Amino acid sequence: MIKTYASRFWSLLKSFQVTIVMLALLMCLVLLCTLAQVEMGTAGAVNAYMRSFIVWGDFSLVPFRVPIFPGGALVGLILACNLMAKTLDMKRTWAKAGMWLVHLGLIILFAGEFVAGMMQVDTNLSIEVGQTVNYVSSYKTMELALVDVTDPAYDDVHSIPESLLSKNRPIPVPGTPVTLSVKKFFPNAELANLPAGQTSLATAGVGPGVQVVERPTATADGEVNQVSAFVEVLAGGRSLGVWLVSNALGAPQGFVHEGRAYTLSMRLLRQYLPYAFTLKQFRHDVYPGTDIPKNFSSLVQVVNPSRKESREVLIFMNQPLRYEGKTFYQASFGKNDTLSVLSVVENPGWLLPYVSCVLVSLGLLVHFTIVLRRSLKRRQEKLEG
Amino acid sequence: MQKPNQSPICSGPSARGPLLLAGTVLLLGALGCQRDGVSHYRVPKEAAPPAPVAQVPGTMPPQAGQGAPTPQFAGSPLKWTLPTGWSETPGEGMRFATFKTPLQGRVEATVVVLPGPAGGELANVNRWRGQISLPPLDEAALAKARATLKTRAGVVNVYDFTSEGKAQSRMVAGYISAPDGNTWFLKLTGDAAPVAKGKPDFMRILESLRLD
Predict the structure, then answer these.
(1) Left if phi > 0, otherwise alpha if psi is -120 to 50, otherwise beta: which for A224?
(2) Which one of A132, A335, A369 would you mutate to disrupt binding with B, by most B Cβ within 10 Å of its Cβ?
(3) Of A24, A163, B37, B143, which residue is 20 to 30 A from A6 by alpha carbon distance?
(4) pLDDT digit string, tens, across residues A37-92
(5) pLDDT digits (tens, 9 = 90+) for A149-205
(6) Inter-chain touch A122–B36, beta carbons under 8 Å
(7) CB contact under 8 A, B53 and A267
(8) Rounded to whole angstroms, how far apart are CA atoms A75 and A23?
(9) In angstroms, rounded to a whole number, what is the distance separating the alpha carbons of residues A59 and A47?
(10) Which helix (H) or strand (E) holds A128?
(11) DSSP summary character for residue B48
């Protein structure tokens, strides 16, 4: 019985009909995703339609989110399974060697997109002339940084990601006596003067005088949410107060517990690096007599103690630096040309599309050679016979 | 008619296909699983953090700081006069305004307004000191570091801090409580050399503070 169902499922999985249906769904997804970019921005639409397993919809009549369409990840997964099943079902003969290579190349292409979708990390590195930076920052995702600044030379940074704060539950911070209790979390909020007669949840820092008004989350490209939260700091079995933390507040707030000084701040999520960049020079060249940019370049000193390395690198447009699994592109600038912003991409599967292209090309070449050889052989036989 | 050459490359039980497929799917699923947790890093103290810039990669967008939205604390009673060569753009978030200076190098002049006492003078001064990697002060040291300036808007407390190390950062800041209950911070920050050059003009801005 189970064997029959498994056999049917296997037949369905490797069927050409599934390929056609999935390709049709992909076409619909491309259209829907393109239209959704007007409201959600490029990154928001790609995440909602192409990199999710289910496309969810919000309807005012229903109190929960409703699945409305299979997401790109699900369609891609089924298509990849279909392709793999079809490949495994092919005759394992030398005559099919070319087709095997082509199918293998396509499977690797699918795998590459999955790896990129699930593991690619896009960050940026903002650095001012003369400054040394050893971290990259997220474009949109925030973190609550609890930093022990007591040591005069080093900071102990404890990073609590935004996704953990949104769960509204106590967060013990390992390595410290501190537990953070999130009283209220706002994915996006506007801060203003607290009107007279109103009270705030905050009891310490700048929060008691600030009104927090929840806003819909920003989805457009280049827009950043003002992520805010009321966080109670608990240590040694007592409350040290409730702080308002928000990336709109700028500089961190602080408190002292058992002789150790801590700062609290909501900021863009950082990933610290085992090496550091110092910006020695930023150039913004224009064509003579115009404001049209000709060249943007950053001369950086890369210092990596683990490799005993210290060298200068010039990063300019279309000439990124590939270093320790990350690619640093010249992306933006500011502050009267004293600030350079490098876009940083980390994709463990960046090589897969190239491997795929080579395999598909090789496969097609092998296949055409086999077919040509077969055809010539038939022709020869016809002439002889 | 002769059949094309079909010698097998490999052979094996056909049940391997579904198993191999299931294994691949599970591997892809495992790659997608991410757990949230508190991360810890021990890092050297940073000198002076740059202003965060949010841009979409792939293009060279306009200069950071342009096109900022309207400030939240509009209609303020505090006014000032800018020296020649200085201009003003509206800020964003809690920042009321940003001054564009004629100074060369890494330097920034800003006006921040916070409601009420904003956590107190000591806490705020220590926040600024933290921004240029200086240790916090106590009340006695704060009083020692404070200089006062009489203006038509009231007394402005002025602080001037310079960080230690090879690349020195400096911050000149004015702190005033306005009659509407808000606390105003006017700050000139950046590399020590351009800040020193811009300090006389910045002090003229502080001296020009008045109530509307």
Answers:
(1) beta
(2) A335
(3) A24
(4) 888 888 888 888 998 899 998 888 888 888 999 999 999 989 989 988 988 888 88
(5) 888 888 999 999 998 998 878 899 999 999 999 999 999 998 876 777 788 898 888
(6) no
(7) no
(8) 8
(9) 20
(10) strand A121-128
(11) -
The vertex-B51 CA angle with B167 and B79, nearest 5°, equals 105
Spatial separation of the C-alpha atoms in residues B145 and A22, rounded to whole Å: 70
* Across B138-151, average pLDDT: 86
Residue A66: how many CB atoms within 10 A of its CB?
12
Structure tokens at B176: 């005033």
Residue B28: pLDDT band by 50, 70, 90 thresholds?
Answer: low
- Whether residue A378 is contained in a domain is answered as no
With cut-offs at 50, 70 and 90, classify the pLDDT of residue A269: very high
Chain A from 211 to 270: CB within 8 A of any B CB: 211, 221-224, 226, 247-254, 261, 263, 267-268
CA-based nearest distance B148→chain A, Å: 23
Of A95, A160, A332, the CB nearest to B6: A95
Q: What is the pLDDT of residue A3?
A: 76
Chain A residues inside the 8 Å CB shell of B195:
none
- The answer to the question of residue A304 being in a domain is no
For chain B, the domains span 92-211
pTM more than 0.80: no
Residue B208 CB: number of other CB atoms within 10 A? 15
How many domains is chain A built from?
A: 1
Contact: B123, A161; criterion CB under 8 Å: no
Residue A371 dihedral angles phi and psi, to the nearest 5°: -65, -40
Distance CA A336, CA A129 (A): 11
CATH of B92-211, one of 2.60.120.10, 1.10.375.10, 3.40.1000.10, 3.40.228.10: 3.40.1000.10
Q: With a cut of 90, say whether residue B7 has pLDDT above it.
A: no
Taking contacts as CB-CB distances below 8 angstroms, the residues of chain B near A191 are: 72, 93-94
Model confidence pLDDT, tens digit, residues B177-193: 877 677 888 999 888 88
Q: Which domain holds residue A66?
A: 2-89
Residue A122 forms part of a structural domain: no
Q: Could you tell me which of A224, A227, A271, A231 has the C-alpha nearest to residue A249? A: A227
A314 is a domain residue: no
Note whether B65 contacts A: Cβ–Cβ < 8 A. Answer: yes
